[in-house]
Amino acid sequence: MPEHITPVPLDKSYRLLNHGPTVLVSAAHGGVSNVMAAAWACVLDYGQSPKVTVVLDKATYTRELLMASGEFALQLPTQAMVSLTVGVGSDSAKEVPDKLVKHGVQLFTVPGSGVPLVAGCVGWLVCKWVPEPHNEQTYDLFIGEVVSAWADKRVFRDGRWHFESAPDELRTIHHVAGGQFYATGESVQA
Amino acid sequence: MPEHITPVPLDKSYRLLNHGPTVLVSAAHGGVSNVMAAAWACVLDYGQSPKVTVVLDKATYTRELLMASGEFALQLPTQAMVSLTVGVGSDSAKEVPDKLVKHGVQLFTVPGSGVPLVAGCVGWLVCKWVPEPHNEQTYDLFIGEVVSAWADKRVFRDGRWHFESAPDELRTIHHVAGGQFYATGESVQA
Fold it and tell me: Above 0.90 for ipTM, yes or no?
């Protein structure tokens, strides 16, 4: 387990994703792990059975691993990880079998799950796949129920983000297009 | 039509939502308009038939107007509009019939659609409802096909955001919880 990691209560886990950051999607099956990038991930429900959606193209290997294993993770890369994010989002493991090594992706697991998680991220949502064949076939839309959540306590603790008191390189990122992102910016209170 | 507004080509419209901002959802039916806030909105597809998802609780009046009229809009409020956003997200038109007036919401329409749009936002996605009864009943998840898109050209032009060269008050916002948002921050290129 990486230093600084701390569990996040399930009923607060939606706050990791609520501000709409770009995520890395990871899954494993039969001893093979993969990681891809996705900007189209979103909270679907909160409370004690929090859920997420994520769009996974039929061409992706991660989708195959997810469907074979029944689990996956969404995790939040940082401003320091934009190149890694674009790298794993551009290369397919079907054509670049060593893509994780190529882009410097280091994996770890947390208690209770075999899903590979990406080190260096600042939030992790470990999810159980909720099969919805029509959504998956028609829209490439997948649903997951969050079964455990974790965060880097330097930036997320007591149920909220604390980007202000940490280095900017730990800020989450929001992809627009073509490798251009916006970092999560200043806190604004209504 | 507000000053500064410009059409966005459909194949670039996903870029308005790709960075995961909080949106306002609007719809109208029978001469009644309503607006609510939603952090759980996401791109579902791009290209020439772009689609979006948005989660709309069964208690919301906007959901009823959407289902009665078959159309709705997602639009991006700014840092200057955090109080309006929290206001229309907290008050229900079922209990506060004059909520739009109370929170200073001004509406306009664009050519080809009767959907009310909120002035002061910096991006607008006019959508046709794509009915999916199972998703709506089970997950409160709605799908829309974007039929026209618009932006404030001070911050979005030539198919990309230009927050850097505009006042911070025009930045989009990302809700975490309890009225706390993060503004869209610095541009980062991989």
Answer: yes
The residue type at B128: K
Look up the pTM and report it: 0.97
User: What separation in angstroms does the CA of A163 have from each of A80, A157, A184, B134, B178?
Assistant: 14, 10, 8, 38, 17
Q: Which residues in chain A touch residue B45, judged by CB atoms under 8 angstroms apart?
A: 55, 139-140
Interchain CB distance below 8 Å, B44 and A55: yes
User: What are the distances in angstroms from CA B158 to CA B9, B11, B14, B86?
Assistant: 10, 12, 13, 31
Which residue of B11, B16, B24, B40 to mutate against A (max A Cβ within 10 Å)? B40
Q: What residues in B contact A143, CB-CB < 8 Å?
A: 139
**How many helices (H) and strands (E) would you count in chain A?**
5, 14
Show pLDDT as tens, one digit a residue, over chain A (190 residues): 889 999 999 999 999 999 999 999 999 999 999 999 999 999 999 999 999 999 999 999 999 999 999 999 999 999 999 999 999 999 999 999 999 999 999 999 999 999 999 999 999 999 999 999 999 999 999 999 999 999 999 999 999 999 999 999 999 999 999 999 999 999 999 9
With beta carbons less than 8 A apart as the criterion, state whether B134 and A139 touch.
no
Q: Which residue of B has its CA nearest to A159?
A: B177
- Chain B: give the shortest CA distance to residue A31, in Å: 30
Beta strands, E only, A71-179: 71-75, 107-108, 117-118, 123-130, 141-152, 156-157, 160-161, 173-177
Interface contact B189-A161, CB threshold 8 A? no
Q: Looking at the complex, report in whole angstroms how far the Cα of residue B111 sits from the nearest Cα belonging to chain A.
A: 27
Alpha carbon of A149: minimum distance to chain B alpha carbons (Å):
16
Over the stretch B10-47, which tens digit does the pLDDT of each residue have? Answer: 999 999 999 999 999 999 999 999 999 999 999 999 99
